[in-house]
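User: Could you write out the 3D structure of this protein bound to zinc ion? I've included everything you need below.
Assistant: Certainly. Input first, then the structure.
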Amino acid sequence: MGRRPLWRRVGSLPRVTYFKPAGIPLAHLQEVRLSIEEAEAIRLKDIEGLEQDNCAQKMKVSRPTFARILLSARRRIADALLNGKAIRIEGGNYEMAVRRFRCSHGHEWEVPFEEMIKQPPELCPTCGTSDIMVLRPWRSDWGMGGQGRRFRGR
Ligand SMILES: [Zn+2]
């Protein structure tokens, strides 16, 4: 073991994680892998339209690092689109920006950090009680302050 992995803050996970071009037999299908943080870079810059400085802050990386992640993401997507390859979105080193909640009946759930800032949850989504609390981090895979959940890809 040596250097610490660089965790990139991710605010949202893509709902669909596999894209496949039409009309290519599986045996001939090549695959491009897009990491979760590459997908997040595309989301922040190209979908939300944020400035690079702002994107870098949100992902907790330097601006050059963000630029590198974004460039790599665009290259992979371009490769897939123009060369007819499938895209699989998975893996990477990222920290999910979520907060975990628990209600008095023991139900637990997670709320994306950005969503929580806009509108903190008031009711348990399972039983509807308003008797809810924020959980403190109790596992080593939780980020400092319990604001993130960390994932390490392959
Ligand atoms: Zn509940």
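Residues 63-83 form the longest helix (21 residues).
User: Perfect, thank you.
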